[in-house]
Amino acid sequence: LADAGGAGGEGQRVMIIGGDGYCGWATALHLSKRGYEVCIVDSLVRRHMDLQLGSDTLTPISSIYERVAKWKELTGLEIKLYIGDICDYDFLVEAVKEFTPDACVHFGEQRSAPYSMIDQKHAVFTQTNNVMGTINTLYAIKDYAPECHLVKLGTMGEYGTPNIDIEEGFITITHNGRTDTLPYPKQGGSFYHLSKVHDSHNIHFATKAWNIACTDLNQGVVYGVKTEETIMDPVLMNRMDYDGVFGTALNRFVVQTAVGHPMTVYGKGGQTRGYLDIRDTVRCLELAIANPAQRGEMRVFNQFTEMWSVNQLSEIISTAGAKIGLTPEVINVPNPRTELEEHYYNAKNTSLLKLGLEPHLLGDEIVETLLSFAVEYKDRVDYKAIMPAVDWKARKESVKA
Ligand code: NAD
Ligand code: USQ
């Protein structure tokens, strides 16, 4: 196994698509600090979506230009910027030709399930942006950087919630006396999750057709905000979404509890998912890059460290919140989504652990730190943005955007 600790990245060039976002920004700094030469490709569309929706991150974030300038000032390390849309193929090709990446980490997609379910326009935008962007990335690698290892962010939600164990990408099936190892069945629960399913199929085909190396990281729900690098200066602060469209379960519950809003458990709360700390996200990316897939291979890792139901999360936060003097409450709100609220869930996640991932687990200490952090910024919270605003089954536009 390649040692991904310390300055293991010396001499390697990593392009980070979506590097201005939540996972991408933290990863860009983490890899830059470890000796990788990093560039960020981002259209800044996510900042535009916040403006459209009238929502904002809990934390104040600086512009991407201020961010990379501060990083250079603090560390002497340069992060090159390519501002543009990867759906614009000419732009992407120019960036790939100029930067000549050894690895390309692709975070650059519309990543909210509720956003994709707002209406027809948002569903089509999500799938066009995500599927086209990934096909463009595959073509750019094939034609201009064939040795480049694509590390693509997928999602655990590609698998849905089947009544059998979830494997890492592939399952061996015996049918009518014959056996084969096939892609694990996919049952995405929103047009967003389905965009990732389509990406996986396209990537699988392209790796075989064009002999490209790819790692598809089926990531669970990410929580937390601080990493070793983003805490170095307020200008490097990461975003933390808590609103009903972009906020994810644990981060939302933390912010809700910090401002005295009850935690919004959708339906019965038995929905179980894989979760991980953002400090583990950046480490997983480092491990995947340091131990690349083979040419012609689509390798799939399930990227999460623990499985929790929504009810379990609300209990963990209730306990930790009470310890630091908050008064946590829970409400069961009608579930705006179409999903099972009680189900079997058992997913494998051994590949990244074998490569050396040492998970930060969701203990009281981490939750208390997150809660205290959210309390610091509670004056920035817009109560109106907290309740879910998008209904999977609604028959007409349910939020304005
Ligand atoms: P984010 O919205 O914070 O960041 C995504 C970034 O990609 C944004 O900066 C956006 O401007 C950029 N982008 C989107 N479309 C683009 C395009 N066409 N061209 C160039 N840039 C574009 O999202 P995130 O939470 O950092 O998620 C990053 C990736 O990880 C996504 O692919 C998401 O599906 C996946 N993921 C996220 C989570 C999570 O809990 N946040 C969990 C599992 C998987
Ligand atoms: N949920 C609640 N209350 C809330 C918010 C969510 O009960 O206030 C429930 C949802 O109904 C769902 C579960 O919590 O059952 C997870 O929802 P989420 O919004 O945290 O996560 P999801 O929509 O699946 O999407 C997020 C990211 C996405 C990523 C995915 C990983 O936005 O980019 O792909 O997590 S996974 O869930 O493994 O597919």
UniProtKB/TrEMBL annotation:
<protein>
    <submittedName>
        <fullName>UDP-sulfoquinovose synthase, chloroplastic</fullName>
    </submittedName>
</protein>
<feature type="domain" description="NAD-dependent epimerase/dehydratase">
    <location>
        <begin position="14"/>
        <end position="302"/>
    </location>
</feature>
<comment type="similarity">
    <text>Belongs to the NAD(P)-dependent epimerase/dehydratase family.</text>
</comment>
